[in-house]
Specification:
The chain is α+β, with helices and mostly antiparallel strands. The chain contains 3 helices and 7 strands, in the order E-E-E-E-E-E-H-H-H-E.
Length: about 90
């Protein structure tokens, strides 16, 4: 039995990061050859923990809906500091 981590460059800030691929927060964005740009029609690209926390704070401030899994206690610890069991992917 194994575990899986998603290793990626954050779509918002470009920082290298790792996360549970089933829990990582993501945004619709496309690569323009230099950087990711927001695009509602694009595939979802992962965010690092710092950017994900900023996005959650913005959603809270603006009264936007936050996914239930993100509202769960310990979400950031599980998403960004734990690995997914390969059988769950």
């Amino acid at each position: 039995m194994g575990v899986a981590f998603l290793v990626f460059a954050c779509a918002a800030c470009g920082a290298p990061a790792q996360a549970d691929p089933a829990l990582v927060m993501s945004v619709p964005a496309r690569w323009n050859g230099t950087e990711y740009v927001a695009d509602p029609a694009a595939s979802r690209e992962p965010l690092c923990e710092r950017c994900a926390r900023q996005l959650k704070a913005r959603f809270e401030r603006d009264g936007l809906p936050i996914p239930a899994v993100v509202r769960e206690p310990g979400y950031f610890a599980r998403a960004y500091h734990g690995a997914a069991d390969e059988q769950d992917l």
